[in-house]
Amino acid sequence: MRRSCSHIRVLLTGWLVFALVAPARGEDDGPRVSIIRDAEIEQLLRDYTAPVFKAAGIHSGAARIILVGDRSFNAFVAGGQKIFVNTGALVEAKTPNEIIGVLAHETGHIAGGHLARGRQELARAAILSVAGMLASAGAMFAARGAFSRSNGSVGMDSAGAVGILMGPQEAVKRSLLAYQRGEEQAADRMAVRFLTATRQSAKGMLETFNRFASETLFKATTIDPYLQSHPLPNERISNLEQAAKQSPFFDTQDPPALQARHDLMRAKLIGFTGDASEVSRRYPVSDMSLPARYARVIADNRFGRLEEALAGADALVASQPKNPYFWELKGQILLEAGRATQAIAPLRKAVALAGSGETPIRVLLGHALVASENPAFTDEAIKVLANATQADEESPEAWEFLSMAYFRKGDSAKAQLAAAEGLFVAGKYIEARTQAARAQAQFKEGTPGWLKADDILTYRPADSE
Ligand SMILES: [Zn+2]
Fold this sequence. Notes:
Blueprint lengths: L1 E2 L4 E2 L5 H4 L13 E2 L1 E3 L1 H18 L7 E5 L6 E4 L3 E5 H6 L3 H16 L2 H23 L2 H9 L11 H8 L1 H30 L5 H16 L6 H5 L4 H13 L9 H18 L2 H7 L7 H13 L3 H14 L4 H13 L3 H15 L4 H13 L6 H14 L4 H14 L2 H14 L3 H14 L5 H11 L7
Parallel strand pairs: 5-7
Antiparallel strand pairs: 1-4, 2-3, 4-5, 6-7
Helix pairs in contact: 2-4, 2-8, 4-8, 4-9, 5-7, 5-8, 7-8, 8-11, 9-11, 12-14, 13-14, 14-15, 15-16, 16-17, 16-18, 17-18, 18-19, 18-20, 19-20, 20-21, 21-22, 21-23, 22-23
The chain binds zinc ion (ZN).
The site of zinc ion has 5 residues, from α4 and α8.
């Protein structure tokens, strides 16, 4: 598991509706989130969502799940058909069903076209806001008119009247909240439909929402990002409960093999993100289960206990020799310990065993091949990393190591182009242009390399950098 070295910018279309959340804000350049790349977790999340996407009529190539390195509970849709899931949500979910329910709800937002409509709603809100301000000059008069209407309907018959009474901001807020409530309930209904269509229960989703709703009562001071983006009034929960219980699959359990993968995923996340006390509390040494050992090996490596980590990784590999991620862990431990040459064999094995969704492991293997500083591995590094960048253009690390491999090979045009691509996907457009210009000068006009450099040179981001 690796935290992406650069932060990618998320285009929060309809952010008011779907992501009040706000991934930590950068200075003045929009929200940024820390993206985590991990072959095992990405594959599991794809396996969780594939049937749901199919039931929703969403092409699985179109929608993507992105893992955010944040231990608070959150999931939201942004930047087109992208579902962002915090590591915290995965750790909190005790069963696959709990997180599949949350993902089904987010899928409901995509299927319902809430993103596109959210944008329109924002535009409408802006118009309302201006209208409110224009009207404020005559507010006293208009307000008197509105108040003169009888019993309780005051100002509620049109948003304009609310604006006059309460001020434009309040009107905008109310309009958006009403809108959001509708969207949330629609997404809940769709989620239940998708879960039923895939013979799964909505119980986990209901339990998760219930937990959030009751926690709010006690934790008045804690603002949970998920609750900000997904308000949970009683009415919403009771509607969901009713729909969920009507399903013949309400008591259906997750398949044991899926639960086992889920347990390993949680152990991995806790091993990689928890502090020493959390790891020993959740996975005491007396616990000899596979997930507990997995978490401890990862934590041992993080906290500098290299020999224990290596011995533990070997024991994991011995327990499940066909588990690609145990081989990957062994390779990663060796690579991080500066033993790149030794990391190559276990990482090759991990790539071969993973079969699909192995791109993050390829990047690790490419890294090891480059870091070995052995010229005999340069061609393999280029092959592995070129393959990784084709499968996943958005990995700045893969481009960076590919650039290094091309430099070793003495191909400075391709090296600089790869460096430019890496900077570009990391959102560093100015530096990317500088590198692209250097690369372009070395390619013949009209060749594929020249054209790729040109794409970067002529790209202008929608908003300022
Ligand atoms: Zn929602």
